[in-house]
Amino acid sequence: MNQCLRFAAIVAMALPCLSNPILAQGRTPDRRSSGGAAGAAFLLGDFEDNARTGFSALGFLRYTPRNWPLGLQGDVFYSRVSLENTTLPDGELSADGSATVWGPGLSLFHDVLPEQRIAPYVLAGLGVYLSQIKVGIPLGGGPRITEQLEETGVALTAGFGLRINAGRALGALEARYRRIRLEGANADLVSLTLGLAF
Questions:
Q1: How far apart are CA 84 and CA 95, in angstroms?
Q2: CATH number at residue 140
Q3: What is the DSSP letter of 143?
Q4: For the whole model, what pTM was predicted?
Q5: How far apart are CA 62 and CA 64, in angstroms?
Q6: What share of the chain is helix, strand, coil (3-state, %, to 5)?
Q7: How many domains in the chain?
Q8: Distances from the Cα of 52 to the Cαs of 21, 84, 114, 151, in angstroms?
Q9: What pLDDT tens digit does each residue of the chain (198 aa) get?
């Protein structure tokens, strides 16, 4: 939690410094957009050896105030990754399972070259997530018992991408990183998505 507070304070202090050069260039209109994205998810950290490539989806709303270099993005994400031979907190070796992580987030973003047809951007923020791990515990030769573990927490998020101007629509290729914890273990959730905004 202390890391999250320090991160938010640094971003807040950086806003006035970043805004002054933009104000000197003239007035720009407010920009609003909404859209969605989907792609691949990768679970790294303590689960890296047990996780397969999964699925990730994202819905978002974006707003850039007039004469500000930074915009605000609110989003909701969902990621699901399959697990193999996952070790439970009690030390028992389980069969295959899955990890699902989803929740809302709020980020600041900056379009590096907003007037270009292909424009890079960066973003960083905080989010709340709900994680759910389901594993099947084998009982001899009989049926498996499904154990479900849930956890809620605050995630740091950061990412970068390329926005492609296609007239009234915007395409985007984005890589996103989220720092989370799953049952007391560190986990890095990375997604690579392709999206569309209007």
A1: 7
A2: 2.40.160.20
A3: P
A4: 0.77
A5: 7
A6: 10, 65, 25
A7: 1
A8: 45, 8, 36, 21
A9: 445 445 444 444 444 444 343 333 444 456 899 999 999 999 988 777 778 899 999 999 999 888 888 999 999 999 999 988 766 555 555 567 888 999 999 999 998 887 888 989 999 999 999 988 887 766 665 556 667 778 899 999 999 999 998 877 789 999 999 988 776 677 899 999 999 998
